[in-house]
Amino acid sequence: MITTPLHPCSKLQGFQADTLTSCRVSEDMAAKKAVLFNFWGVVVPSRPGGVFHKLEEQHGLPRGFLSQVASQTKGALMQAEKGKMTLNQMVPAFKAECAKEAKARGVTLPSDWCVNCLLEEDRKAMRDVQEIVLKTSASLRCKGVLTAVLANHWLDDSASADDLAQLLCLLGHNFNLVLLSCHSGHRVPELGMFNSALDQLGISSKQALWLDVEKEGVKAAERAGMKSILVENLEAALQKLSDFTGVQTAGAESPPVICHPDQVSHGYITVRPGVRTHYVEMGSGPPVLLCHGFPESWYSWRYQIPALAAAGFRVLALDMKGYGQSTAPPDIEEYSQEQLCKDLITFMDKMFIPQVTLVGHDWGGALVWTMARYFPEKVRAVASLNTPLFPADPSAPASEKLKALPIFDYQIYFQKPGAAEAELEKDLERSFKIFFSSSSEAASRPALKTSGVCARGGLFVGLPEQITRSSMLTEADLRYYVSQFKESGFRGPLNWYRNNQANWKWMCSQPTGKVCDRNLTGNGENCRPRSRFFLTLINRLTG
């Protein structure tokens, strides 16, 4: 089932495939560089002073009242931000300081005022991370520039620390270093805070650039030996950042964050004796299982995995049976849709996943449709890329339909074991250069014709021996795909095609559940609804 390949860069947050070729560490950089961002005012648009002012207006407090209390050198907030006390210790102390300041000013604190109001507003402000800053960090890191976030914040030992944990997880995934003042013992813009960050990054101050909205912070960074940018307009500041690093970031389409094979969690489940499934896992939340197509790997989802995890899902990307580090049994019947579904259900059961959202591409798309139709109790939602739903037609055998459609002649060629394997395995690098091609490059690359394959004597017959690599793949991507097929080859992947007749017979004999979108079928009664939010997200990830 050769379809348009799952675009590895996709349109996640507006990113384009052309930027993939630049997503490599520059070899000609004279020295390491680092960009340090102040969390307050840059990574998030809010400043602590703005949070204080908002609360003062809401509760009728004198302007500057909270800022005055918070800025006391030996006050509770300053001490908490330096790690001298925890949040639970800070709250009563800060409350007492507010009462003392109110008494000194002859002000009566309103009845609806409490320190928890400040904390809630603070948490709300911290969640508003600016997407363009994350994009900028991704661009910089792809070019070998280190990135860091420095934040004045306390040690949160409250029952509401989940928000901070999620924020730190997001930042930790997008920056080389996230340094909180409570762990440093120093606050921004103190020299000790800068030195701590530089030491952990392993660079000197002359190699670093600091971005801040506060003039005090800019001057302090310059005194520390760093270059600095006063962020009055974020877009203009990012252009100056580009001038310093040599990396185009402002206004550029940045590559999305990917999960590298050596930087992601790998797992293995023995489905039954002699059959093992390899998977990659990231994130927490409702489970989403990604099923790739032909001829691919879990690695085809490398751009989608981090994005889905960041969106609040537990993502599991499989090496499908016959691929990569999963078992590749030689028997054709091992790859029937019936057996593949049984294996997938066993995988879910052993992972204690009662129900899952399934997302598939190409043959993976066919499998997720099969799961949704024949095992609907296991499927919460389903989405397929490039592979529409083809219900089995009892009046027309699958083999006859293939013969009637010339574009599927390659599948007839794939039926006989041996010939296709030999052709595709002859030069793995060339094979993947042919298979992975962007539609935008159609005019400059030889077309892979799926009709007339049997008459030609092979899928690649007529194509030049030397094929240029598509912009969809970096050299590292190409090497990884080649490495995954060197050991087990194409026998297993091709066996997926060799069950068409068996699949048709089985599907025609089974009762099926409805698969529909509640929003497209009225009230959706008796249907398996797909999640509108999830499909919207998937569309963003894949264009």
From TrEMBL:
Residues 286-499 form the AB hydrolase-1 domain. Signal peptide: none annotated. GO terms for molecular function: epoxide hydrolase activity. The keyword RNA-binding does not apply. Keywords: Hydrolase. It comes from the Eukaryota. Pfam families: Abhydrolase_1. SUPFAM superfamilies: alpha/beta-Hydrolases, HAD-like. Belongs to the AB hydrolase superfamily. Epoxide hydrolase family. This is Epoxide hydrolase 2.
